[in-house]
Amino acid sequence: MNKPNNGTVRNWINGVWTDHAGPTIDVINPATGQVVTSQPDSSAEQVDSAVSAARSAFSSWRTVNPSVRAQHLHAIADQVALRIDELATAVTIEMGKPLDEARGEARKLVAALHFYAEEATRLRGSIVPNADDGFSSLVEYEPIGVVAAIAPWNYPLELIGWKLGAGLAAGCTMVIKPSEYSPGSGLLLAECVAATELPAGVVNMITGAGQTGQALTQHGDIDKIAFTGSGATGAAIARGVAKATSLSMELGGSCPLIVTETADLTEAVRGTLRRAFRNAGQICISINRGYVHTDVYDDYLAALAEGATRLVVADGLQTPNADVGPVVNQEIFDRTTAHIADAVQRGARVIAGGGPISDLAPGLFLQPTVLADTDQDMLIMHEETFGPVIGIARYTDLDEAISQANSTSAGLAAYGFCRDLGQTFTLSKQLDFGNVAINNVDAGIINAPYGGRKGSGFGVEHGREAIDGYLHVKHTRIRH
Ligand code: NAD
């Protein structure tokens, strides 16, 4: 097997690492500004050969016994487990998260692949009663077909791996496009797949930016598009599909937090620090905006500002105790500083951080920033920033706080901290989000369905339910 990551990333199509003579796209380490590798800017013809490979593999893969598909998934998970450090290093170099966090992502991917392998063995159908004697209705679930899986860079292993796990468990074949910011880690994952006995063409991976993604999603022989990324790209994909195609859209959001007067403040502050600044705030379920009851507002803010100031911001490859790395690109760097400036100009107080760390330039490092006394008109309180910044507003009435939390188009994740059972149920029932976490900040876990609503998309990843998105139902009515 020739290796993809020998300086230049290659496509993996029909079980072969393909040479590429056309244009390429550089990948830049956001901590240093240095070019680390380059990738094929794949053409529509290359997309077509990957889709053809997936189509021809589908005819036999769809009939493979689910327990055998499970063995393949366990084997892929085992290969990933052997290469945790290598995968994590590639992630850190390409998108900047601290190495230990990247190792955690790779380990969670191993667990996710084993989870989907187990779920593959539990697929089932049913026989439903008929009103007429002498008939039986058989209800079966079959793999939907060839899947185009398109991923962003912020969890470059998991966001590919969840689709791969659920898709293969269902019996689908895949053409995967990693983000142009993280192709090397994506193709290392393809190497893990290539090291197993999985038949050629069941999984294919091609690199490139938006044009490649567009050629893939508009290809006429795709049965499902599994997309994770921004709302703008998701809308463009939905507008451009070539034929009736199953879609799942995991999009962005602006995730709120409500801290009531009954909250354990130590836990609330610990949770906020983790979910606002982890991955430099570049998580679709990052806490972007907080609503804190007036009785605990000052204490909460003081502890949050102190905690944010103590976070170690550094190159996650060189600094073992780094908490926060750089943001991935200039666009996010500029948007974050613009959102901070907008809030300050409209009257918010900066109580921690406030902007770029010029000593670490050209690395794209920003201080973890806490803005107090924000209001809903500020960009930080209703648009997705995707950087290490949080805005906090004071509230007196819980219904009003919930209404502000629900007031944006976002519907992915919301958080609450409170020790009152009534408040817990009020938050759980009234927050209009696909994922709500109370007294913890892990809104997405592999065992339970995870998906957005409103402008944050539709369809789910995680849980048994994720596999349903890769299946379609067949009813056979039999007269006997
Ligand atoms: P993005 O939309 O810019 O890119 C995502 C992927 O789409 C990339 O692979 C890109 O090359 C591809 N793409 C771009 N234009 C395309 C087109 N016209 N057709 C097809 N594919 C195209 O998003 P990003 O900057 O990589 O990721 C950040 C966004 O992802 C944030 O909004 C974040 O909230 C969201 N996100 C959501 C979840 C979730 O689970 N809901 C998880 C992670 C990230």
UniProtKB/TrEMBL annotation:
<dbReference type="InterPro" id="IPR016162">
    <property type="entry name" value="Ald_DH_N"/>
</dbReference>
<dbReference type="GO" id="GO:0016620">
    <property type="term" value="F:oxidoreductase activity, acting on the aldehyde or oxo group of donors, NAD or NADP as acceptor"/>
</dbReference>
<dbReference type="InterPro" id="IPR016163">
    <property type="entry name" value="Ald_DH_C"/>
</dbReference>
<keyword id="KW-0560">Oxidoreductase</keyword>
<dbReference type="InterPro" id="IPR050740">
    <property type="entry name" value="Aldehyde_DH_Superfamily"/>
</dbReference>
<feature type="domain" description="Aldehyde dehydrogenase">
    <location>
        <begin position="17"/>
        <end position="475"/>
    </location>
</feature>
<protein>
    <submittedName>
        <fullName>Succinate-semialdehyde dehydrogenase / glutarate-semialdehyde dehydrogenase</fullName>
    </submittedName>
</protein>
<comment type="similarity">
    <text>Belongs to the aldehyde dehydrogenase family.</text>
</comment>
<dbReference type="Pfam" id="PF00171">
    <property type="entry name" value="Aldedh"/>
</dbReference>
<dbReference type="InterPro" id="IPR015590">
    <property type="entry name" value="Aldehyde_DH_dom"/>
</dbReference>
<dbReference type="InterPro" id="IPR016161">
    <property type="entry name" value="Ald_DH/histidinol_DH"/>
</dbReference>
